[in-house]
Write a structure and sequence with these properties.
Helices cover 25% and strands 34% of the residues. The protein has helices spanning 2-29, 36-41, and strands at 32-35, 50-57, 63-65, 70-76, 83-89, 101-108, 113-121. The protein has a five-stranded mixed β-barrel with strand order 2-4-5-7-6. Strand 4 and strand 5 form a beta hairpin. The longest helix has 28 residues, at 2-29.
Length: 134
């Protein structure tokens, strides 16, 4: 009986530890995905939370320092040209340029800047239909 009781206690501890690891893993990796329009509408409400925001790199807004790997640029809405300053430290993606569609992952601070941990660029699609005017 004593052996059976120790087995149940040990199994319970292992199950609780695995459940805790799954919970913390999901909590740390789950982030909201927003377009820049959605983000701008509720930026104060989501300040400090993990976010992914998609938008375009603003024209002539790139400030890149290759010595320190610091990058600052404006993430903008292509329609309204309204946006937010993004601060990123890391390797610059190959396809990064003015007007390029990008996705940034990080947190928005109340100082008005989005502090990105990850910066992803999207390639222009070769398969998009051309605009033809008849």
């Amino acid at each position: 009986m004593e052996r059976h009781r120790r087995f149940i206690i040990g199994a319970s501890i292992i199950v609780a530890a695995v459940a805790y690891l799954v919970y913390t893993g999901i909590r740390e990796t789950s982030v909201y995905y927003l377009t820049i329009e959605e983000f701008l509408a509720k930026r104060e409400a989501v300040a400090g939370e993990g976010l992914r925001v998609s938008g375009q790199v603003g024209d002539k807004s790139i400030d890149w320092n290759p010595a320190t790997l610091d990058l600052k640029f404006r993430l903008v809405d292509a329609k309204s040209n309204d946006g937010v300053l993004v601060a990123y430290n890391g390797v610059l993606p190959d396809m990064f340029a003015d007007g390029r569609d990008v996705i940034v992952e990080g947190t928005y601070a109340r100082d008005g800047a989005f502090h990105a941990r990850t910066l992803l660029t999207s390639c222009p699609s070769k398969y998009e239909a051309e605009d033809t005017k008849e």
